[in-house]
Amino acid sequence: MGRLKSPGEVTKFRQEILSKRDSNTPCISVCVGTGCLASGASEVLAAFKTEIAKQGLNAEVDTKGTGCPGFCERGPVVVIYPEEICYLQVTPGDVPEIITRTIKEKKVVDRLLYVDPNSGEKVTHESEIPFYKHQKRNVIGNNIKIDSQSIDDYLAVGGYSALVKALTQMTDEQVLAEVKKSNLRGRGGGGFPAGRKWEGSRKAPEKIKYVLVNADEGDPGAFMDRALLEGNPHSVLEGLVIGAYAVGSHQGYVYVRQEYPLAVKNINLAIQQAEEYGFLGENILGTGFDFTVKVHKGAGAFVCGESTALMTALEGRVGEPRPKYIRSNIRGLWNRPTVLNNVETWANVPLIIDKGADWFTRLGTEGSKGTKIFSLVGKITNTGLVEVPMGITLKDIIYKIGGGIPGGKKFKAVQTGGPSGGCIPGELLDLPVDFDELTKAGSMMGSGGMIVMDEDTCMVDVARYFIHFLTDESCGKCLPCREGLRQMDRILTHITEGKGKEGDIAILEELSETAVEASLCALGKTAPNPFLSTIRYFRDEYEAHIKEKRCPALSCKALISYYIDPDKCQACMICLKKCPVEAIDGGKKKIHIINQEKCTRCGTCIEVCPTRFGAVKKISGEPVPSPIPEEERMIDRKVKKNE
Ligand SMILES: Cc1cc2nc3c(=O)[nH]c(=O)nc-3n(C[C@H](O)[C@H](O)[C@H](O)COP(=O)(O)O)c2cc1C
Ligand code: FES
After folding, report:
1. 601 and 633 share a domain?
2. Nearest CA residue ID for atom 20, ligand 1
3. If you take atom 6 of ligand 1, which residue's CA is the nearest one?
4. Which residue has its alpha carbon closest to ligand 1 atom 25?
5. Which of 38, 97, 118, 447 is most buried (CB neighbours < 10 A)?
């Protein structure tokens, strides 16, 4: 395929692609995103190809390896079009049955369907699965429909039509005006309006300007940018070219961490294909606009996602933040005007240009328009990527989409915004999720991490965990962040180990204030959030740890003990055999006792003690009851074998 030289050639070529495709031909889409690959998706796809050939169906059935639709936990995910039948956790062994039953006999393989954990009902179609039903998948929705390594697939779903429109029917000012009107706010961190950032660069007098994609995605547990870059790289690229046109830039970079090999591969391939088709390079679509893109692989430090650190790393130096006396959109990469936006921000741009700012602003709240992709993880029934309209409540995300908290446990808090986000408590479950409301609640949108916590989670330990992560990731350039976080980490660790002292909370508050006020970059400025939000909503837990040496969630190892209730112990030997450090003494018909000196508080005994006995107890802040006298330990309770 040579370069397409005009909008007319693009339209003709798109029609050619579509004319070769029959929408009624069954197409088996197998997700080959990183999550599903890890659970065997490439073997499943290969098995489909082999089985289709074996049954002589090559001319009648298509197969596709696609991007991630977000439900990785139930992968490998297979969706069969046009009916949109969704099978989960498919193995190569299931393939012959799917071909025979679903493709040939038009029947559904029941055992591979999603089962609603509450009603026990089986759900056939992807869009009816509760996980998907309440989402609005404007940005990520095409992932399961297209082969992410095929530009033709992207063109077939309307890809690059926004670029054609921008370059041939709109002036650069009009493109900028449309993005400003949409009030698209950055999806990667602070939610800065993209249009305003672009305008600053556009107006800057220097001729050479850059546009960058931030695909560093350092937040632990977050993978929405990876899913987009792997699953629909052309959508990000198309947004980038449109942005470059509006800003007046001719060179772009995609900064992607090298721990994302598939994303690196797919974006490189997409660039190569876009160059070949004439959507990149010189004189794009005959309009005279030139633009090229290069990929830069980052070494994977969390701080390199910060705008100035990212630019320093791109310049070939150690990725450390620098002071922002002048904004990066005016003086950024190599001191030139530079627009840096997140992967998801760029992927929204073609939709805004194609469908218009009015369409985009129909969804969302006053200050936050459109949708946002979240990575929903933690103590929740359905985990994965969810794309929802801004303004949806936390409750709807957690209960309608996430399916609630497993094991009948109580919801305690949700941590949003990545490591330097904050924890939002149960009282605020009706909070509409948007940039401003999350900030008001002491957290932030960040790039869209959402970790759900249940009653067994200790909020002091959560703060300790994130502050520890940020201490490790601090580049060490400025003192409030380097030393302040280290001290916060030390004090929080002491508190969770039962060594907390009166006055610790005040010191933590003081260190937080200094880090917020005086750190060089937003890593240090936001790092105290995990402490500040948990002290705001869960102060009683801090006080219990410090004053009573008690962990109310029964989670901090140094503050808990396990003991076996002699009245309930059936001397069944299960815990005794499973204890990895042989800390349990007892025998057949001899009540078991935990040796507190040897016990490492791993919790194996409580996990394996049959629930009908419930003999192992976990306690905190109270002394372990004295063991019963040796002469009273022999019992004559009969334990039925099959119980
Ligand atoms: C420590 C730190 C890490 C960050 N990591 C990322 C990241 O991985 N991806 C990202 O898009 N933005 C990240 N950001 C935010 C960026 O600095 C920047 O605001 C963002 O890329 C701008 O794009 P947006 O306006 O489209 O969100 C990080 C910020 C900080 C302070
Ligand atoms: S990788 Fe397959 S559903 Fe996410």
Report:
1. yes
2. 188
3. 305
4. 186
5. 447
pLDDT band at 4 (very low <50, low <70, confident <90, very high): very high
**Co-location of 520 and 536 in the same domain:** yes
Is any ligand 2 atom within 6 A of the Cβ of residue 386?
Answer: no
* Sign of the alpha-carbon torsion through 472, 477, 481, 485: positive
Q: Whole-prediction pTM value?
A: 0.94
**Eight-class DSSP state of 291:** B
Q: Are residues 485 and 594 in the same domain?
A: no
Q: Is residue 511 part of a domain?
A: yes
> Count of domains in the chain?
5
* 448 CB-near residues (< 8 Å, 6+ apart): 187, 222, 224, 344, 372, 373, 374, 375
User: How does 44-71 read in b/e, with b if 16+ C-beta sit within 10 Å?
Assistant: bbebbbebbeeeeeeeebbbbbbbbbbb
CA of 71, closest atom in ligand 2 = 3
* 488 and 632 inside one domain: no
- Among candidate residues 421, 420, 384, the one with its CA nearest the CA of residue 135: 384
CA of 451 to the centre of ligand 1 (A): 19
For ligand 2, atom 4: residue with the closest CA: 72
Q: Return the pLDDT at 119.
A: 82
36 CB near ligand 2 (under 6 Å):
yes
CATH number of the structural domain spanning residue 417: 3.10.20.600
Kindly give the number of the ligand 2 atom that is closest to the alpha carbon of 74. 3
pLDDT tens digits, residue range 227-263? 999 999 999 999 999 999 999 999 999 999 999 999 9
**Residue 566, domain CATH:** 3.30.70.20
Q: Is the CB of 71 under 6 A from ligand 2?
A: yes
What is the pLDDT averaged over residues 521-537?
95
Residues 572, 588: contact at Cβ < 8 Å? no
Q: Is the pLDDT of residue 612 over 70?
A: yes
**Residue 215 reports pLDDT greater than 80:** yes
Residue where one domain finishes, among candidates 457, 477, 492? 457
Span from the CA of 75 to the centroid of ligand 2 (angstroms):
6
Whether 540 shows a pLDDT value over 60: the answer reads yes
Average pLDDT over residues 115-127: 90
Q: Which atom of ligand 2 lies at the shortest distance from residue 33's CA?
A: 1
Q: Give the integer Cα–Cα distance in Å for 93 and 95.
A: 6
Question: Among the three residues 440, 457, 474, which one is the final residue of a domain in this structure?
Answer: 457
* C-beta 90 within 6 A of ligand 2: no
The mean pLDDT of 328-357, rounded to a whole number, is 97
